[in-house]
């Protein structure tokens, strides 16, 4: 089921035969809109086509969401909390350590 939020554009729904008969058009639409194209067979959803950029963005968002869910779960299980200063200091240290280990490998 496809749901739209207010202000969202209508999804592109095309027959799966368009992949064979109008591939260039489908590819151009995917690149230009960065939105998924829903393909149907006999009026029933069969697959979704999207540009590589849109797919990579979707993967990144999914990974961020998963990490946030993990952090929420961990926060429920422990009372340990870190200040923003502590978090940023740990991040800087991790970047420095990664940079120095890369430099030593070269």
Describe this structure in words.
The chain folds into two domains: 12-50, YefM-like domain (YefM-like fold), CATH 3.40.1620; 54-105, no CATH class. The chain is 60% helix and 14% strand. The chain has four helices and three strands, in the order E-H-H-E-E-H-H. It has a three-stranded mixed sheet with strand order 1-2-3. It is elongated. The model has no long low-confidence stretch (mean pLDDT 89).
Shape: elongated
Structural class: alpha+beta
The number of helical runs is: 4
Taken together, the total number of domains comes to 2
The neighbouring-strand order within the major sheet is 1-2-3
> What order do the SSEs take from the amino end to the carboxyl end, as H and E?
EHHEEHH
End-to-end CA span = 52 Å
Mean pLDDT: 89
Strand content: 5-15%
The main sheet comes to:
3 strands, mixed
Protein name: Antitoxin
Family: Belongs to the phD/YefM antitoxin family.
InterPro entries: Antitoxin_Phd/YefM, YefM-like_sf
Organism: Collinsella stercoris DSM 13279
């Amino acid at each position: 089921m496809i749901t739209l939020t207010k202000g969202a554009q209508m999804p592109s729904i095309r027959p799966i035969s368009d992949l064979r008969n109008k591939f260039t058009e489908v590819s151009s639409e995917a690149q230009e809109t960065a939105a998924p194209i829903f393909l149907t067979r006999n009026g029933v959803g069969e697959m979704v086509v999207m540009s590589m950029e849109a797919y990579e963005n979707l993967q990144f968002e999914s990974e961020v969401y998963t990490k946030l869910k993990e952090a929420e779960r961990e926060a429920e299980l422990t009372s340990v909390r870190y200040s923003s200063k502590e978090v940023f200091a740990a991040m800087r240290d991790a970047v420095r350590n990664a940079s120095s280990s890369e430099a030593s490998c070269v």
